[in-house]
Structure formats: structure tokens, C-alpha cells
Amino acid sequence: MDLPDFVAHADWGASAGKRQVAVAERESGSYVMRLPKGVENITEFRERLAGRAADSRVVVGFDFPIGLPEEYARKAGISRFPDALSRFGEGEWSGFYERAKRPEQIALHRPFYPHNPGRPGGVQQSHLLEGIGITDKRKLLRRCERKTEKRGEAGMLFWLVGPKQTGNAARIGWKKVLAPLYGSDARTKIWPFDGGMESLLASEGLIVVETYPAEAGHHLGLDANGWSKNSQEDRRDQSEALFRWAASRRVKFAPDLHESLSNGFGNGKHGEDRFDTVVGLGSMIEVLLGHRSEGAPQNEAVQDVEGWIFGQTTPN
Q1: From start to end of 198-309, where are the E strands?
Q2: Does residue 47 share a domain with residue 29?
Q3: How far is 275 from 265, CA to CA, in rounded Å?
Q4: Which stretches of the chain are assigned E, i.e. beta strand?
Q5: Residues 232 and 292 in one domain
Q6: How far apart are CA 52 and CA 54, in angstroms?
Q7: Last residue of a domain, one of 145, 170, 195
Q8: Total domains in the fold of the chain
Q9: Which ranges of 8-132 does DSSP label H, i.e. alpha helix?
């Protein structure tokens, strides 16, 4: 398989401070991973990605959902997720990215709820289920989001309450990054909807994949339990696994990144985001170098509407 010249991973949040990006570039047969940087301007970030991919192979990962639950897609008349991206926010889908303020506003074409997740009093998951006409909340989980032997269940895409919620990041990422890139350049592809990684890397362009930090960590040998990414000391301890992983692969850490990992990324409020984005980038490289399978099953729902987490091999 042809290897990409440039790999990036974004730990993507709804606020600018929570958006951190780590990159790796091929140098003399190895990937050199760089210190993460914040994304202040999404448009500039998107344009830099497109510029990088103009004459090279680029793979970028985002830690928000890229796909839709099969049952929701069926009820909404969506047969292919990438095609739906161009319709979200337009016409009958004009309210798709707007968070419903009240239960009666929830609909198939406006599924994100509630409007203010910081004040969840009075809101219930039952409001969401009733609004879009799905009675079983498990059907609002994609196959790749279900609990595995390595990690717990992920959050539901449209439910915007709780520490596992990823819907706000997805709303912003789809609207401001994925849809513009996919709609403006035919060389932008989304894995696995547009094919397997080997076929996608056969030509220059930008390839987008989905990651999940809780999944990525065990790809690199981090402890599954007993530590918190919110703790500087725990991040520092878990960095030892990253050093061992890099030493066994064609991967190097730039000096400032090595120093930051050794220090657990300091005690600032965004240390966990920087740590997460480095772990996600390492997981992507592990797959690209062939040490781990891409993982996406040959399932019609997965390939067309649900998508998959890059490198997740546990069948669901």
C-alpha cells in the first residue's frame, strides 16, 4: 500500500480551545510526529488540508462521528452518508444543524437535542426518541459505537448531554470541514464509504477517517483502565507506552513533542486534548503501516451510511 506523505489527527471540540491537531510527516522512511497545535480558524485549517492534498497523499482523522445510525438513515430516506452531507443545511434539511430548543422542534430533519446541554434540566432522551420516531435508543448507536471488550459504549450522535456527547463536534465538523471539502474537490474521499485505504491511497488527494480516543489508546498499548486522561501524572505515565510503541515502529517524536509527553502535557486545561490527539494520530499510523487492520466490516449499512472507527477490529 502506498503510504501518505502527511497524516493529521484532530481532537475536535465545539470550542476553539478544544480543537487540537497533531501531524506527522514522512522523513527518510519514518513518520515524524509534531507537537499539537490549536485550530483557531476552521476555514484556514480546511484550506491548509486541501492545499497539502493538492499534490500529495494526505490522511486526516477526526474524533467525531462520521456517519449515521442505520435506523435513522432509513427513516430519513438517506441511502449514502457522503451524499447527504451536501443536503444538510439546505432545503428541507435547512434546520439540520440547528439544535432543537424544545421537544416539539425535534424531527428527522432537526435531530440534535437539546439546545443548551450545559443546562439539561427538564430534557430527556425520550424527547429525542419520540421526536424522530425511534423507540429503542440502542438503534441510535452505530455498530462501531456499541460496547466492546476493550471499551464502553460511545455516546449517541444526536443526544447532546453528558461527557460522552460528540454531536456538537460533529455538527461543526460536518458543516465547516467535511461538507465543504467533499463538495468542492472530487479528490477528497471519506473512508470507508469511498473504498478501502489501499484503493484510496492509489492516487493523490485527501482521505478522511473517523477515530475514537477510547479505542485508539488500546491500539498503542495504553492501559485500558485505572487512569484518567484528565490527570497530568497519569498522562505522563501512559506516555511510556507511546515511547515503547514508537520505538517498535518507523515513528519518531519531534523533540518538543517528546518533552511534552514526558511532562504529561503540563497542567493546563487543554493537556488532555493534546494527549488525545497524539494518541489518535499514533493509532492512525499503526493502521497505515500495516500493523493493524482497518477494521471496517463488509456490511452494507456500515459501508453506505454508518461508517466505522479507523482500526477498530472488534465485530459488532
Answers
A1: 205-210, 251-253
A2: yes
A3: 7
A4: 6-11, 20-27, 30-33, 37-38, 57-62, 188-190, 205-210, 251-253
A5: yes
A6: 6
A7: 170
A8: 2
A9: 42-52, 70-76, 81-85, 125-132
pLDDT at 120: 60
Query: How wide is the angle at C-alpha 84 spanned by C-alphas 72 and 315, nearest 5°?
Result: 55
pTM of the model: 0.95
Give yes or no: residues 210 and 270 share one domain. yes
Assigned C-alpha cell, 125: 432522551
Measured between alpha carbons, how far is 211 from 159 in angstroms, rounded to an integer? Answer: 19
Q: How far apart are CA 160 and CA 188, in angstroms?
A: 29
Q: How far, in Å, CA of 58 to CA of 188, rounded?
A: 10
Which residues on neighbouring strands pair with residue 208, listed in sequence order? Answer: 60, 190
Cα 225 to Cα 245: distance, rounded to the nearest angstrom? 18
Pairwise CA distance, residues 10 & 210, whole Å: 10
Nearest by Cα to 283 from 151, 178, 180: 151
**Domain hosting residue 143, numbered range:** 70-170
Residue 195: inside a domain, yes or no? yes
pLDDT lower than 70: segments of the chain: 117-120, 315-316
